[in-house]
Amino acid sequence: MTADIELARIDGGTVAMHDARRKLRWSVELEPFEIGVYPVTQEQLAELLGESATHPRRPATGVSWLRAIRFCNAASEWEGLDPAYTFDGEDVTWHVDADGFRLPTEAEWEFACRAGSTTPHYGPLDEIAWTAADGVTAPQDVGGKLPNLNGLFDTLGNVWEWCWDLLDAARYDEYRVFRGGGFADDAWSVRASVRRGGAPRMHHEDVGFRVARGGFEATDAAQGWSAAADLERAAIDAPLPPGWTPRR
Questions:
Q1: Which of 167, 203, 196 has the alpha carbon at shortest distance from 70?
Q2: Is 16 helix (H, G, I), strand (E, B) or coil?
């Protein structure tokens, strides 16, 4: 049942963030929060959303960002918590004061993944992450490699993990971030700082998610994210360069 979603408490702290395209670096001060010890598994997805679970202990993959959001709300409702999200069609609003399950912000994810480390990996990659070097052809059962110092398994490798944040609102419109690298990726992609993303309805066999919890006394801003910053980053007066995604 959803009580099987095991969470680790992450104390507050500072994480350094980096946007390679915009050549920006900044620091985010985080309040304490909780995050899943493991990625959400096929079994957990099946219990709440009626998905099939052919490999119960493998990370749930082929899950779109929107589906992950709906899982978070379903888990909150099951546990009697205030859902973190409301929907207007496919537009999602995060109520940052809610105590329900949610996706981590990008800053939360990176801070929890690094667990105090400042290098690309929190340990020898072959010991902590399933990558292309292992020669596997599918995600592996969660918890099969060593955890980081926060007690989190599979933050690097195995499957990429959706976060709440937009990837780059100017270039990719509504694309959302996923982090961490997957079982088919080379070491270069399996690093704590690597950012990739996809459209909210996209689903991939190497992308899953883990949940977080924590409400904050704020509106439309928390843990390194803000709606105002999203709007500012999306604002481009000039024509979009070739290859950029047209905004709706």
A1: 203
A2: strand
Q: Helix 42-49 crosses helix 65-79 at what angle (to 10 degrees)?
A: 70
Q: State mean pLDDT over 193-204.
A: 95
Q: Which two tokens stand for residue 7?
A: 């969470």
Among candidate residues 145, 191, 175, 148, the one with its CA nearest the CA of residue 10: 148
As given in the structure block, the two tokens for residue 190 are 């399996």
Collapsing DSSP to helix, strand or coil, 4 comes out as: helix
Measured distance CA(104)–CA(38) in Å, rounded: 13
3-state helix, strand, coil in the chain (%, to 5): 25, 25, 55
Is pTM beyond 0.70? Reply is yes
Alpha-carbon span 214 to 31, nearest angstrom:
9
Q: Does domain 7-235 have CATH number 3.40.50.300?
A: no
CA distance 172 to 197: 9
Cα 126 to Cα 135: distance, rounded to the nearest angstrom? 12
Instruction: Answer whether 184's CB lies under 8 Å from 157's CB.
Output: no
Task: For residue 230, give Cα distances in angstroms to 126, 166, 168, 221, 236.
Answer: 36, 7, 9, 10, 12
Rounded CA gap, 185 and 42, in Å? 21
42-85 pLDDT, tens digit per residue, is 999 999 988 779 999 999 999 999 999 999 999 999 999 999 99
CB 162 within 8 A of CB 209: yes
pLDDT at 2: 46
Instruction: Give the mean model confidence (pLDDT) for residues 126-136.
Output: 97
